[in-house]
Predict the structure.
Amino acid sequence: MRNNCVPAGHESYLARSTALLLGALVGIASLLVSQPVVAAPPALPQEYRTLAGHLAMPLKTSPDEFEGPGNLTETLSSGHTTMLSLKDIKSSDRQIEYITRQTEASLAKCLQRVERLNALPKPPGTGELMANSFIDGFMGNPGGGYSRGLEAEQMQTAIKNELYPLFAAMEKLDATHQMLEPVAKKYAANLTYPANRITVDLDESWGPVGPFDWLYVHNQGPAIRDATIVVKLTGADGATRTNVHFVRNWDTNTWLYGRYETGLQALGKSVGNTTVPGVKKVEVTVYSPRFSTAVSFSYEGDARDHDIAKYCKSLTFTGRYQPYVTKRYWPDTKRGVEFTLDGLEGIPRCQVKVTFWKGLLQKTETWEFDYWKRGDKKMFRPKQPLESDPTMATMEISFPGTSYQHRYSYYVTP
């Protein structure tokens, strides 16, 4: 047998060398694992830019850039122009191709239904219908009123038959626009979280301040190109809403504005709703080929209180004291104070606490109102009548969802 024995000294030397070599390899391997090479995302296709430019919701550099609804001719013309642009999109990305065709089909249905609605005869208003029915009766044509009412009902039915599929197509378009997010994520850089790079704020509609909720996003870093901005709103009741925006160029140190609304309530449906009641949280994710990040903003506590205080800066009141008046044949007029609202068109649901003071003595009572509009005079009299004239009446107004209180003091003159 061939002698394969290795002297003890050599064996220990080889073992040590092997161990050292293995240790070095393990160390190198661990370095390779802990510092992987991150592959760059694939290039963003031009057809995505075209699709997102039509389908995503707009963000603008000023609230004044948002236009009103415009006239029907302009709306139809814009819609058909978009259709031609969508037809030109051909993509090897299956998601982009699918979203494009879905958008094209839903938009075609919307345009078709709107054009049909525009061609239908419109039913007369209530006043016109009543006037015509009165004339029919006066002229001895009792069947005329019935036929007119039936004709108006048939017109309304024809309109409803077009509105239902129109609303369904609009809902499909809305759902389709939210499908842009996974496509944008696929072509975006990995998420990073640099401090204060993106700032988020919100102004929620409140009473006379509205009817829109306004989103504000600020880029404090270098310019961002081809940014898909996903905004998730969470309301006080847990309801959520996701809006997707696309911005080709977001310059450095630039604010962008988004306009959200409650939409239209019709035929038992909410159409065009892009917000939630009582927004509590705003989550913003930015996807772009070179930079992506995610930030959140809590619209509770100080943030909401600050906005309500800002809205109420111009809120004013005038007071008038009602003294005790004795009447001979009618009940006596009790003491109280009357406040008249001014400065705003009105304030929403609120609780009003009025305290009557005379020296250190006080009497407090609370009232609740669904709405208090400008010019309305409200009289406040305690259930237990005041026994003497107070020297001062103070009013504290509080609102649901905020700890802000608006205060007003009225000094009673003898």
Q: What stands out?
A: The chain is about 35% helix and 30% strand. Residues 142-177 form the longest helix (36 residues). The two ends are 130 Å apart (CA to CA).
